[in-house]
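Blinded run. Sample ID left blank on purpose so nobody reads anything into the name before looking at the predicted structure. Input follows.
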Amino acid sequence: MPIKDVFLPLFGEPRDPTLAAIGKCVAVAADLGARITGLALEDDVFVRPKPVFPDDPEPTDLGLREAGDMQQLLNAFTNAASRVGIRAQSRSGRVPADEIALTLAEHGRFSDLTLIPVKPHDSKTENIVETFLFQSGRPLLLCPEQHVEALRPEFENIVIAWDHSARAARAVGDALPILQAAAVVRVVTVTDDKDEAITQSGTSLVHHLREHGIYASFETVDAGGSSIGKVLGSFAQSHAVDAIVMGAYHHSRLNETVWGGVTKTVIGQPPCWVMMSH
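Blinded prediction complete.
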């Protein structure tokens, strides 16, 4: 099924990398031929008024500043949509801070794909990504703000991070429209144990993809004692990969939070576009 309806949550401060990432996300939606919806939310915070005396400095209105931040995000979205000529709609609202992530995830249920700009190692962004993975029921496409200038909106070189799990299989199914448009697709398993079962699993996926017109290759990459997330990042950089497709949270979210894991590593610092499903 083609990707026709894309959702872009707009949150955070309107820093230059964030605004640039919004533009790249809109360009991806345009390349997919999809409609895009942008939703900006801000904290619904009550600010107790303070008494003002004649000699006090000019007061700073936090509410006005936040509204200005939200408007800049919306402006970046509408300007990017106008440049690429995509069908777009934008909305905004106010909710309590602890409900922003869930509210965004609930809106994401009515889309084929959610695109999320990701700041490196930012706890607020990680919480939003994790909430989407567990609550939206839809795949995500992470846009790393730190690499935004180098990102391309066309995905010609794609890696499938294959760990033989149900979540990885779900991610492959969700990514089929993107995989079918790619020029190069690699199925990659990061492992220190190259047994026959691993080869058979990767080869079976290659044969399955061929039935969808996707001519992929399979290879294993030696972990070399490093984390899988870091190995995938290094592989993506050395092979000029446009996007990684992967399942999220093979272990429980609690275990990954305590012990670390590939999902936490990639969410914290995506090396390129990353499409995730849970």
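Unblinding after everyone has recorded impressions. The chain is about 40% helix and 25% strand.
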